[in-house]
Amino acid sequence: EPPTWYTAESGLFSDRPHMMLQETFWQEEEKVVTNRHILIDAGTAQVTRYAASYQAYSSEEYQILLEESGFSRIEFYPSLTGEDEKNGFLITIVAQK
Predict the structure, then answer these.
(1) Could you tell me if 34 and 24 are in contact, meaning their C-beta atoms sit under 8 angstroms apart?
(2) Which of 51, 56, 70, 74 makes an SS bond possible with 31, Cβ 3.0 to 4.6 Å?
(3) pTM of the model
């Protein structure tokens, strides 16, 4: 995704007015996506950085990981509601241990 930015009076990362810059990086070899959030406080110009990285797995890889961890009756769904989601990259997995 391309970098984005927005301004807000308050939000998840700050109760104060701020500007938020966002970047997303996909590392194909590691199958990792990293989301970076750079917050600039409107009153003080203080910069605060946040980041989160997520490991991606295929359904087959999830199946193997769960079976190796002792789970059975593993079922995959396209969302929490069972309806196809627009983004197509989030799923729900139900398993029994």
Answers:
(1) yes
(2) 56
(3) 0.67
Q: At 62, which helix (H) or strand (E)?
A: helix 59-68
The one-letter code for the residue type at 60 is E
**Facing residues of 48 across strands?**
39
33-36 long-range contacts, CB within 8 A, separation 24+: none
- Residue 11 and residue 35: Cα distance in Å, rounded? 17
Q: How far apart are CA 56 and CA 84, in angstroms?
A: 19
User: Environment class of residue 30 by beta-carbon count within 10 Å: exposed (0-12), middle (13-18) or buried (19+)?
Assistant: exposed
Interior/surface letters 40-71, b for 16+ CB within 10 angstroms, e for the rest? beeeeeeeeeeeeeeeeeeeeebbeebeeeeb
